[in-house]
Amino acid sequence: MELVRAERRDEAITLLLPAFRRKVFGLAYSILRDRESAEDVTQEVFIKVWRALPGYDGRASISTWIYTITRNASVSALRARHPQSSLSDPDVMEAAEANYPGPATDVLAERAAILKIVDRLPTKQRQVVMLFYMEEQSHEEVATMLAIPVGTVKTLLHRARAQLLAGATKSRSTA
To answer: What residue spans in the chain does CATH classification 1.10.1740.10 cover?
Structure first.
């Protein structure tokens, strides 16, 4: 980054923000599973990036460096936060349905059911599923964001799909 070396971090962050905002949010969301918390972490990450730009030495790619900051900030936020409501909580779902009657309720209920199933996956599988399917990141992007090999991403996705399929088959047979 020539702008960083030239000590023009305001210009550098102006270029980095639109290029990485969605991916930073997606990674934060995959870890936190809460939109508001992920938005807060996304803002915090870009403030940290702006402050730390003068110390960026280029040993890692800028994307790897930003994803590492995002991952660390998300894990810190996860540790600090108190248990929060989720759409998989029946009381919260009931309140959501009361506020959004009609077809939107069906969409909320379906999304809540999907998230409830995905939430049962082991942490790494859940993160990979959220980033790959919900945030539509490529295998390579997920690997970079989580600092794991691409092969590991593919393995985790395969295992998650198998586990989700087994869960879906089991729930259909008990219905």
So the answer is: 2-80
Tell me if the domain spanning 2-80 has CATH number 1.10.1740.10.
Answer: yes
For residue 156, the Cα-to-chain-centroid distance in whole angstroms is 16
Helix axes 139-146, 62-80, angle to 10 degrees: 60
DSSP run (H or E) holding 1: none
* pTM score above 0.70: no
Taking only the tens place, the pLDDT of each residue in 25-36 is 988 988 888 899
Task: Give the closest residue to 120 by CA, choosing from 58, 155, 171, 69.
Answer: 171
Read off the pLDDT of residues 84-126 as tens digits, 9 standing for 90 and up.
545 455 554 555 445 444 444 455 566 677 777 888 889 899 8
Unique residue bearing structure tokens 């219905």: 175
Q: What span, in angstroms and rounded, lies between the C-alpha atoms of 51 and 147?
A: 23
By CB neighbour count within 10 A (0-12 exposed, 13-18 middle, 19+ buried), where does 101 fall?
exposed
Residue extent(s) of CATH 1.10.10.10 domains in the chain: 120-174
Which CATH code for domain 120-174? Answer: 1.10.10.10
Return d(Cα 12, Cα 93) in angstroms, integer. 42
Cα distances (Å, whole numbers) of residue 23 to 27, 29, 62, 150: 6, 10, 13, 17
